[in-house]
Amino acid sequence: MKHILLPTDFSANSWNALEYALRFFKNESCTFYILHIGELKYSGVNSNSFAFPSKKILATIKKNIDLFSMRVERLLVHQKHHLIVLQEYGNFIDIIRKTVYEKKIDLIVMGTKGTSGLRTAVVGSNTGDVITKVICNVLVIPENAPLTKPKKIAFATDYNIFYTHPILNTLSDQLRISKANFNVLNVSQANGILTCTQEKNKEYLQDYLEEIFVGTHNFHNVTNKNIKEAILNFVGENQIEMLTMVAKNLNFFQQLLFDTTIEKLSFHTTIPIFVLHE
Asked: 2-142 has which fold?
């Protein structure tokens, strides 16, 4: 059974992310943990003393949780799906880490808002922090992402990392569930010639895919001095519906996702991003 964490602030974007997750994992045995993290000042505890937050604020939070839970329950038509609602107070990232560890979370699903991508995350500005600071797979759902399983997935990689069992297992799961066409994309800034290490890693990935997913994957090599531009062009030109990357390439990853000066970054408003951690 999969354990999936869905942080929520009760916004339309967090609801969109939740609905996407329910549809993507429609036929999978899953426990969905709906987590709302409130500010510590609303918890009734202030440092080492007790404070008394406004009853109106607490009542509003409880009402939102109840309404959100009822909406989710209506969508849980599959007997394999189970719902657990959690309420916590304190530091967002600390609580996410604690929940991932205690509940043995396999995947975090979060929403984003706006053309500036992950910098304007729904839950405060925390989506980018979750991706880079929490060791757990993250599926980022933009506000305008269609609520359908992707038919085409792009896996952007430089072949500089060894594809470990956790990475390959997650990719396999992703492809098994979506039944999508899988496009491995490598962007070279020079002459397109791979190093010996890159060649070995590519061959390893290729052998794995050919053994498990015959005829449903393609390898693409593009030469472009601007890696970000190349990936964005590939996504647009090939009608990619989900972009997958490994968080281990952190510097490159951050440059691509967090540089909001690129006009074409508006693809964040429609294309889900699957971030793999080992």
From this structure: Rossmann fold (3.40.50)
